[in-house]
Structure formats: C-alpha cells, structure tokens
Design a protein that fits this description.
Blueprint lengths: L2 H21 L9 H6 L3 H36 L11 H14 L6 H27 L6 H25 L2 H12 L7 H20 L1 H7 L3 H6 L4 H23 L5 H13 L3 H23 L10 H24 L1
C-alpha cells in the first residue's frame, strides 16, 4: 500500500477512536467520560459499563461486519451494487432467526447464546449459495441477480409475516423491533459472541485479499496466476454469510451499510482489497456508530430503530448508483 493509503487508514482509525469516546457520553442520559472518573456515583458508572459501553462497542462490531460482508460480495460479483440486503442474504438470515424466535428450543445456556447466530448463518448461507450459483450462469446479469434478490426478499418477508401472525404478543413485538434493526439489546455476552465470530472471519478475509484482487481479472486469469478459484470463492462466501448472520442475529436487519461503505472506500482508497478491506471495516464501524448515536439521542428518551436511519441514508445512495451506472452504459 502507498503512503497516502496508509495515512488515510490511520486518519480513519483516529476518527473512529475519537467518535467512540464521544458516543459513550451521548444518549437519554449524558455520561461524559470525565464525569465518570471524577464522580463517585457508582450508579452512573454501572450504567456506563453495563449499558452504554457494550452498545457502543457492538455498533462498531456490527457496522464493521456488515461493511466487510458488502466488500466481499462486491469483490466476488465484481459489481458495486452487490449488497447482502439487496441480494436477499439478510432476508434469508432474518427468516431463520424469526423461526428461532417463534419456535424456540430448550438448549444449554452456551448453546442458546450462539443458536440464533447458527440459525441466521444457515439462512444466510442458503440465500448466498442460490445467488452465487445464479451468478455463475453465462446468461446471468446484474439485473437478473437483483430480480432474484427481490424475489428472495419477498418470499422471506412473506414467511416472516406468517410467523408474526402466529406469534404471541411478546414474540410479535420482538420480531417487529428486530425487523427494523436495533442495538438496544446490547450486552457483554452478545458482544463477546459476535466478536468471537467476527475476528477470525476478518483475519481469513484479510489473508485472501490478494486472491480477491486477482479474481477481479476474471476466474480464468486468476486460475492461471495460481489462485484456487473455487476454494477462494467458497471460503469468501462462507465468511460473508457468517458476518451477515452474526449481525442479523444480534441487531436485526440493518440495511445499506454493506452497499454504501465499500463503494465509498473504493472511490477513496482505490481497488486494492488490501486497503479496501480494513477501510471498509473502519468506515462501517464509524457509520453505524454515528447512526446509532443519532438514533438514541434524536428523540430521547425514546429511541429510533437504527435500521430506519441507515435506510434513509442508503436508499438515495442506491438510486444515485443506479442512475450513475445507467448513464455510463448509456
């Protein structure tokens, strides 16, 4: 990587650190760090440690995971419009988690912690495999993939609607809030579970950054350059499905982070995935942290679902991308 890219990533990391420190103080109850260190009020300190800090850190992990999943999808499909939400991968994970909510099983505590993520992983993986197989067909095109994504989203949405209809009041409220995306249920246990899945997945994707660069030349060219194309594709698909699954299982459906962030990073840092991957993780964490901070302060003491804010930001960006690409092809 060039010196400019390294400096850009360092600046992004510093901005993320500053924003993290600021975000821990904002909310329905103002808790600046200086107050916590100078005040002997244990109640405020406990609120900061058990509620505010886990939520801020979970926003970083979820945002980074969604952005990285989008980065991988865009690299695999070689198209900036590829996104886990648009292609139906998030909906597949959402349907699996909805099944888990409405039809719970009695399992040991440790298994219960990871069970929603396992269900979401299977749902995300099923949708990912369908999309990937269709993308390998010669007659496949972006419009075809987007139509398939719309169909998957519609089918999964209908299935979630049926599950909502047969659910009880508590399950219905959980499904409704979770479908709009929220980090309100953040706890140290859920943060640990998501982080334990994200960290090794990020490391695997980082190790495959050079292979992902070569795949941009085409599968045949990458093969001649020494890339085991099928293995790399399968590993990256599994990793992206795992990232989406972990995010959806904990925070619900938060759209457009995986679309906007990787595209912005490619515009800023270039096409080298050795720069785009860490840039996407940092920028995704930054974007979702800002969105969540706004969501819990804009209408305080109430709270706005963070998925609504990301959709408000992401939908115009998606339209701009479509018209921009349409103008280029025209």
């Amino acid at each position: 990587m060039t010196r400019r890219i390294t400096l850009s990533l360092c600046m992004l990391a510093v901005a993320l650190l500053v924003m993290t420190l600021l975000a821990t103080g904002f909310g329905a109850l103002r808790l600046p760090v200086s107050l916590l260190w100078n005040n002997s009020d244990d109640a405020l300190r406990q609120i900061w440690l058990t509620i505010r800090l886990p939520r801020v850190l979970l926003a970083l992990v979820i945002g980074g995971s969604l952005a990285l999943a989008g980065c991988v999808m865009q690299g695999l499909f070689r198209n900036p419009l590829a996104d886990p939400g648009l292609l139906g991968i998030s909906s597949g994970a959402a349907l699996a988690v909805a099944l888990w909510v409405v039809i719970p099983l009695s399992l040991p505590a440790l298994v219960m912690l990871y069970a929603p993520m396992l269900a979401a992983f299977l749902g995300a993986l099923a949708a990912t495999v369908v999309i990937f197989l269709l993308s390998q067909q010669r007659e496949s095109s972006l419009s075809r993939l987007l139509l398939v994504g719309i169909a998957i989203n519609a089918l999964c949405g209908a299935a979630v609607g049926v599950l909502s209809w047969i659910s009880n009041d508590a399950q219905l409220r959980q499904l409704s809030l979770w479908g709009m995306g929220s980090l309100g249920q953040a706890q140290w246990s859920t943060l640990l579970a998501v982080t334990s899945l994200m960290v090794p997945t990020v490391w695997i994707i980082w190790r495959l950054a050079t292979a992902l660069n070569l795949l941009q030349l085409g599968e045949e060219e990458a093969h001649y350059l020494g890339v085991d194309v099928k293995v790399v594709q399968r590993v990256l698909l599994l990793c992206s499905a795992l990232l989406v699954a972990a995010a959806v299982a904990v925070s619900g459906v938060i759209g457009f982070v995986g679309l906007v962030v990787p595209h912005l990073m490619r515009m800023w840092l270039g096409a080298d995935h050795r720069a785009v991957i860490p840039g996407s993780v940092l920028a995704g964490a930054f974007l979702l942290l800002i969105a969540d901070t706004v969501a819990r302060t804009l209408v305080a003491p109430a709270e706005m679902p963070v998925g609504l804010l990301t959709s408000i930001l992401g939908a115009p960006w998606f339209l701009w991308l479509i018209f921009r690409r349409g103008g280029q092809h025209g």
